[in-house]
Here is the input.
Amino acid sequence: MNAKLENILNETLNLLNYDYQTKVVKSNIEGIDFQCDDAFKLAKLYHKAPFIIAEEIVNKIKENKNYQNYFKEVIVSKPGFINIIVSDKLINNSLIELMKKDKLGTTKENETIVLDYGGPNVAKPLHVGHLRTAIIGQAINNILKFKGNKTISDVHLGDIGAQMGQVIYGIIHDFPNIKYEDIQFDLNYLNITYPKISSLCKENESVHKECAEITKKLQEGDPNYHILWKKICDLSISDIKKIYDYLDVHFDYWYGESDAYKQFPEMMSYLDKESCVKIDNGAKVIEVNEDTDKIDIPPCIIQKSDGAYLYATSDLGTIWQRKKDFNPDEIIYIVDARQSMHFTQIFRAAKKTHIYEGKLFHYGNGTVNGKDNKPFKTRTGGALKLEDLIKEVKEEFINLRPENKSMDEEDLDKIVNAIIKFADLQNDLTRNYIFDIKKFSEVNGKTGPYILYTYLRINKLLSESDSNLSENIYNEIDRTLRLKLLEVSSVVNEASKERKPHIIASYLYDLSVIANNFYQCNHMSNLEGQIKNDYNIILKYNNLIIKTLLELLGIYIPKTM
Ligand code: ARG
Here is the structure.
C-alpha cells in the first residue's frame, strides 16, 4: 500500500520538477490513513513555504487520472502536512493482491546466516537467564528462514569452562578408588555437585587451585579427565535438550566451546605467521582499540602466560570454523547484553586479523527481572531454574479457571509456551522486563493467551465462502481491520531487517484487538449473502496472519482453550 502511494506521489513530484523520493507513513490522526511530511524537506531544498509546496502537490495529484481509484481525499494541513484518506477500492484491490501472494507478500532475502543463541553451560542447570537468548534467537531464526535466508543455528555450549574442573573435582572425591570408566552418577548428582564445589572454591583457595588445574588439563586434552567430561556432557546435554524441545528451540549444530579447541593449532599458527598477536606480560593478545573509541577497549587476550586459552579464544576459533564450514554472509549472536564488550573485542579481532570479513552482529538481550526490577531470583535467592519456571506458569494457568484443569496436556503445553514467549517477545529484546506470571497468564491484555483466544474464537465463526471479495467495505471497523491486514508484509520485512521479533508481537496484539472489536460489532451469525461472504474472507485471512506470525514467534495454536 505505502509503495503504491509513494509511486503516485513521486510521479507528481516529477511533474512539478521536484527531484525527490518521498515517503508515506501511517498516520496517527483520527480519520486519516496515511501522511506525507516531505513538504518540509522540499521547502528547505527549494526555498519555498512548506504549505505552498504541499498545496501544489495536492492540486497536481487531483489531476491524475487515477485519483479516484487511489484516494477518497487528500488534504493539506497547516503548516504543510499532506494527509491521505485512501479509497475503499485501493484497500480492496491491495487486499486481493496480497491474498494471492505467498509468504504474506514479504520480500525475499537470500543470505547465509549463522545464528548463535542459547549458549547454555554444561553441568549447570538452565535457569531463567537462559530463557531470552533461546526464545529470541529461535524467533529470529524462524523469521530469517521465512524470508528465504539459509540459516544455520549453533547452540555454542559452554562445555569446557571452570565449572567442568569443579564438577570433575567433586566426582573424583566422591568416588575414590573407582576407575573413571566405572563411575556412575546421575543428573541429580550433577545438580548438587556444581553448586557445592563452586562455593567450596570461593571459601578454599587450594580447592580453587586444584579445580583450575583440572580445567587446564582437560583443555589440554587429558584422556582420563576426558572420560568423566564425556559422561557429564552426555547427561547434561540430554537434560538441556529436553527443555529446549519443550520450548521448540532447535539447533542445527550442537557444537561446544570444546570443538573450537580443535581449531586452535591451525588458527594460532595463522595468527603467529601473519604477526597478528603481541606478547604482553607473557600473554598473547590482539590489540583492538581504535582512535575513535570513546571508552577504553582492552586488548583481546587469546592465550594466558601459562598457556591456557580463554572465552575469547574459543569464540575466535568458532568464527574460524564457521567461516571454513559454512562461509556465511553474516554471523549473529543473541547473547546477554552484558557481554557486549567481549563481542566488540572478538569482532574487531576477527576483522583485524582477516579471520572473517563478513558481517558480525551481537544482539544483546536484556534480563528477565523480578518484581524488584533485578534479575529474577527464587525466594531463597538463587537463579530460578527454567524447569521450575515452566512448572510455575503451568500451575498458574491451570488454577486460573476450573475448566483449565481438564485440559488436554498437549494444548496446555502450547499455552504455557505462548504465555512465556509472548511475555518475552513483546518487549524490544534490548530491554529488561519484569516477569509477572499472573499478568502474562491472563486471557485479557497483551498476553499470549489473548492472541490464541482471538484466533480460536474467530476460527469458530468461519465457514466456506462461495464467491470472491466484493468491492464493498461495510463500516469503519471493517475498514480499520482491512487496513491493518495490509500492514503485514512490511511488519515482517521490518522485523527481519532489524532482527526484532517484538515488531511482529506488537502487530499481532494490535491486530487481535481490532479483530476482536470487529467480530463483536459484526455478528457473523446474523449475516448472510455477500457481506457474510466478504467477512468470511477477511477473517480467514486475519487468522492465516495470526497463525503464521505466531509460528514465527515459536507459538503454536492449541485445539481449544
Ligand atoms: N555460555 C556463555 C555464557 O553462559 C554464553 C555463550 C554465548 N555465545 C558465544 N558465542 N559466546 O555466558
